[in-house]
Amino acid sequence: MQNKACVRAHTNIALIKYWGKRDETYFLPMNSSLSLTLDKLYTDTMVSFEEDLAGDVFYLNDELQGEKETQKISAFLDLFRKEKKTTAFARVESHNHVPTAAGLASSASAFAALAGAANRALQLHLDPQTLSTFARRGSGSATRSIYGGFVEWDMGTTSDDSFAIEVDDASWDIGMVIVAVNKKAKEVSSREGMKRTVETSPFYPAWTQAAKKDIVSIKEAIAKKDFIRLGEITEANGMKMHGTMLGAEPPFSYWEPDSIRAINIVKQLRKEGIPCYVTMDAGPNVKVLCRLSQAETIKTALLSCFSADKLIITGPGAGIRELTATERSEYQWNESFEVKGWKK
């Protein structure tokens, strides 16, 4: 038996942040969140379940991964094997078009793509909402990458009803300019930073209460297509999240000097009449929510401090999908272990 599929998933950037788990095992969040799926950042993953494999094999960006990383993938695939009632091991080959662990939500697209590929390869026929609960078990933010546009992750009450919901396709001139301040892996991982904040920051209870109000307000803004209000809520919510980290013990911050430079440029652009708003996740990189039609103007302003290779303009992305034959032809499926991963 050999069942395989290749799926693309786009990353997403949370506008109302997911920051804190109430259940570490099932990745249940402390609050509901809302994101924008992006078209320029994505992961392509091929999964092949093969009965003659002696164990799971995992390649990331053409490199065979070690035991620690493979174990994470195996634990995730076990959810799908259990659903299918199979013990077949899998060959997983994934290519990230997102810098890994740099605060650009690479885990969101990675686990959404892996979930989608495993679902199709095993012919489980899970509907998108159910699939989002599976993706959540790999990375909380992956829940939202199942869908495109604006997506809500409803915190739910149990593992079964903590899932993603489509909110809006974001087709009304919505864009984002990403300032890749630092593409290197973070010193404090998102999971470690989240856990430390929840357990030690006195600011955290106020954050969860504010987040509950923010998600109601931002959905109202989206329904009215009120971009100004959307941006104001986005920026305020992100700043509040980062504020909780300064109260943690020991305190920490993901900001770097270039993060502040980018923020100041955005503030100046607003003074000049260009509506644009900042958000940041668990990393130094700055995301500027804007009108897609004004993204080039914003990029030009940012070029005063940042090189062009650090700036990415992106529009709304789509939900997960299987790659077309043309897209698959860009990669060479690794039928043997003589060649590592896919080759462009």
From TrEMBL:
<keyword id="KW-0456">Lyase</keyword>
<keyword id="KW-0443">Lipid metabolism</keyword>
<feature type="domain" description="Diphosphomevalonate decarboxylase-like N-terminal">
    <location>
        <begin position="9"/>
        <end position="164"/>
    </location>
</feature>
<keyword id="KW-0444">Lipid biosynthesis</keyword>
<dbReference type="InterPro" id="IPR014721">
    <property type="entry name" value="Ribsml_uS5_D2-typ_fold_subgr"/>
</dbReference>
<protein>
    <recommendedName>
        <fullName>diphosphomevalonate decarboxylase</fullName>
        <ecNumber>4.1.1.33</ecNumber>
    </recommendedName>
</protein>
<feature type="domain" description="Mvd1 C-terminal">
    <location>
        <begin position="177"/>
        <end position="310"/>
    </location>
</feature>
<dbReference type="Pfam" id="PF22700">
    <property type="entry name" value="MVD-like_N"/>
</dbReference>
<dbReference type="InterPro" id="IPR029765">
    <property type="entry name" value="Mev_diP_decarb"/>
</dbReference>
<dbReference type="GO" id="GO:0005524">
    <property type="term" value="F:ATP binding"/>
</dbReference>
<dbReference type="InterPro" id="IPR053859">
    <property type="entry name" value="MVD-like_N"/>
</dbReference>
<dbReference type="Pfam" id="PF18376">
    <property type="entry name" value="MDD_C"/>
</dbReference>
<dbReference type="InterPro" id="IPR005935">
    <property type="entry name" value="Mev_decarb"/>
</dbReference>
<dbReference type="GO" id="GO:0005829">
    <property type="term" value="C:cytosol"/>
</dbReference>
<dbReference type="GO" id="GO:0019287">
    <property type="term" value="P:isopentenyl diphosphate biosynthetic process, mevalonate pathway"/>
</dbReference>
<dbReference type="InterPro" id="IPR036554">
    <property type="entry name" value="GHMP_kinase_C_sf"/>
</dbReference>
<dbReference type="GO" id="GO:0004163">
    <property type="term" value="F:diphosphomevalonate decarboxylase activity"/>
</dbReference>
<dbReference type="InterPro" id="IPR020568">
    <property type="entry name" value="Ribosomal_Su5_D2-typ_SF"/>
</dbReference>
<keyword id="KW-0547">Nucleotide-binding</keyword>
<dbReference type="InterPro" id="IPR041431">
    <property type="entry name" value="Mvd1_C"/>
</dbReference>
<comment type="similarity">
    <text>Belongs to the diphosphomevalonate decarboxylase family.</text>
</comment>
<keyword id="KW-0067">ATP-binding</keyword>
